[in-house]
């Protein structure tokens, strides 16, 4: 893919700051892909240090900065300098999952869930069956909790 977006957020582990970097792009089959590309140890976490680490990572991957897209936070800051950025808990969860993928049992579990999701997604019959089962189980849980 020519165009891509970057998401990164520094995390701490044992008083050491790290910067996991992920790239988001559309692959040749028009599927959105998010790939973990680097886990950088940061000496300092000033904005300029984080920005430089991201730029260096992008250059090391051989990607062109002119093809970088997105980066909504910077655009909003241009419009309203007082805007405050906070990341969502979903992003924090995703970073945790990315870090956990080095553990074989977790990586295999996530791969299994991904395969199952694809298997269901590309069959309307299987997708319908799964929705029916989920609805049935939801009704049972509602009854049980009532």
From TrEMBL:
It comes from the Eukaryota. This is DUF4371 domain-containing protein.
């Amino acid at each position: 893919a020519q165009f891509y977006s970057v998401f990164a957020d520094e995390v701490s582990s044992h008083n050491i700051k790290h910067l996991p970097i992920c790239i988001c792009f559309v692959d040749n089959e028009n599927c959105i892909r998010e790939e973990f590309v680097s886990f950088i140890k940061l000496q300092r976490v000033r904005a300029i240090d984080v920005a430089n680490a991201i730029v260096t990572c992008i250059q090391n991957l051989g990607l062109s900065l002119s093809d970088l897209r997105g980066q909504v936070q910077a655009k909003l800051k241009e419009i309203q300098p007082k805007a405050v950025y906070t990341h969502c808990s979903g992003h924090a969860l995703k970073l945790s999952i990315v870090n956990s993928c080095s553990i074989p049992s977790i990586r295999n579990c996530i791969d299994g869930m991904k395969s199952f999701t694809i298997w269901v997604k590309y069959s309307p019959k299987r997708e319908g069956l799964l929705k029916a089962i989920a609805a049935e189980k939801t009704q049972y849980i509602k009854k049980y909790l009532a």
